[in-house]
Amino acid sequence: MKTTTIKSNILRKLAGIAALLVIVLVGEKMAFAGTLTTARDYLNRLKENLTSGVQHEVFFTTAAAVSGGSGNNKVILKFPDGDDGKWCATAGSDLTVTGIANPTGATENATVLPGSLTGTCTKGSGASSYDTITVSGVNNLSSGIKYGVRIAGGSTAKLGTPANTTTGIITIYTNNGTANIDSASTEVDIVSDDQMVISASVPASIGFSISANNLSLTLSIGAVSTASHTIQVQSNGDSGYTTMVYSNGNLKSGNDDINNVTDGAVTAGSEEYGVATSDAGQDISRDTNCSGSPYTASASSTTPQSIAGAASGPVNETATICYAASINTNTIAGNYTQTITFVTVGLF
Predict the structure, then answer these.
(1) What DSSP character marks residue 298?
(2) Contact (CB, 8 A) for 324 and 337
(3) What's the start-to-end Cα distance of the chain, in Å?
(4) Per-residue burial over 279-312, b = 16 or more CB atoms within 10 Å of its CB, e = otherwise
(5) pTM of the model
(6) φ, ψ at 250 (rounded to 5°)
(7) How much is the pLDDT for 5?
(8) Distance between CA atoms of 126 and 331, rounded to whole angstroms?
């Protein structure tokens, strides 16, 4: 009889323990109401061992509502054990957190994670301690809704990446402020380098042309004779170009010549000859009306002088080059010639 009573007591205790285990297990299941779906993390960089400049764009669909109250809920990202101090490169509480509907360059059509969002990242330390990002200030979340959030580094807190030996498994939790509700894992592949350097070479190019290679001045006493032509430059040099001009000497006939202009303009009744350009800022004087008075001009020289140019490029530019001469009664008859040489340099 005594033995039977003892056995009955033992059975009752075992039944109680079993009931307690059921309660614990059911309680645990209730704390994690379900599994998040569409769990995704769009990382902006997959290169290993970065210590800043990393951004997470996280999306998930809730299984259960998260109802800790307005601003009391959280979204938590837990990173692989063994990656301590890598995902959270610099711990801090000033992460930049923004609710988003779509990731950069892709489409999710999610609901913006609601709330006055703030973010903290903490470093793991040793086994079973994990780098963690916690988004706080989240408003209540409805069940079966896809939400999106962008998380980036702040002034202090910096997000990074681990070595490419990581598992890359990131667990996302919803939390009501006191307990985790739903969870799911997503995976990213960290690589040794995630960027391609593209090189391209644009060859230097320059073109130069003169509209005419022979000009005639019909000289008469008491008048100024003029002639002109154009030069054109095309160049892809970043710093533009310069065109210089020099002569083989004065406008001459044998040992006789027509004096070079010395006062900045060729004047009827004086024996003088000069050159001008329509381009401003050159050694050679500027004249934008070759055939009209005053006949502004500079003396030609056997030393190169700038006659056209630009300080930046690319260019496709045309300049007009003017020649003016006048004679008087002392000018000796003859056929006068001069050779002018143009040199153009692209400034690449």
Answers:
(1) B
(2) no
(3) 111
(4) beebebbbbeebeeeebbbbbbbeebbebbbbee
(5) 0.66
(6) -70, 170
(7) 44
(8) 103
